[in-house]
Amino acid sequence: MTWPFTEIETYYDSKTQALLHRYGPGPRVHYHVGLFDEPEPLAPVPQLLKKQIVASQERILRYAAQTWDASSTLCGNVLDVGCGLGGGSLFWAQEFGANVTAVTCAPSHIQWVAHFAAQAGVASQVHPFVCNAVEMPGENCFDAAVAFESSCYMPRQSLFQRLADLLRPGGRVFLADFFFEQSEYEEISRQHWSAPIGTLGEYRKAAQEAGLQEEGINDISLRTEHFWAITTALVQAEACQKEWNGTEAKKVGESLYAHTLLRQGLVNGGLRYALMSFVKGNN
Predict the structure, then answer these.
(1) What is the pTM of this model?
(2) What are the chain's domains?
(3) What is the tens place of the pLDDT at every residue in 110-142?
(4) Would you call 157 helix, strand, or coil by DSSP?
């Protein structure tokens, strides 16, 4: 397939204000799912729902950090692949002392990443950089690369090969993302989020071909499905607070459908959410 780089860059560049509205105010602003150990009651107003969302996003980062032994693997020179507004970059810098190169394809994100890094006191550790990650320059210069729901926006074979070249021997690739088992979930992801998600098999093959050794896969699908109940409730609560024209009402309907379908897929096994890790050999 021809990879929709331009479409993806436009999508992310246009999302800046919406991300700040939904997941702000920061300084750690995330654009990924959250983790729930148990379903939580749906808060009655948007502001409380947003707090539940942000808390769950922080929770999944802490779970990933524990799973990936971040205190020893994500404490050096780290490449944050597709950093968005920098929430993950700040997390690795603040919590583990990492020196993070925060790569985004959206020019409008750069000033926000720098602003939030300064606000969090880690401006000297977080370095925003506009680049398509598969074209990131350098060789053997990072101890780890982490991609939190960004690898789905990149051609897997090209991404893994570039990351393998960027990593030092013994360096690791850490991924968190969606993977489809049934094609309808790939289709809705592409249509609504401009994200051409893949299968676990596709990722494993691409990593192997790039010379990366698989370390582990941790399927946490059922611990993320409640996130979509929260986001659905938020869309509905926000919709009740204003009058929509025909175009806006259609977008709200499409959003509700997409969020409901993703939750359904996570429950029935048609869609999976997993943490993956790979290591570059010492040879």
Answers:
(1) 0.94
(2) 5-280 (3.40.50.150)
(3) 999 999 999 999 999 999 999 989 999 999 999
(4) helix
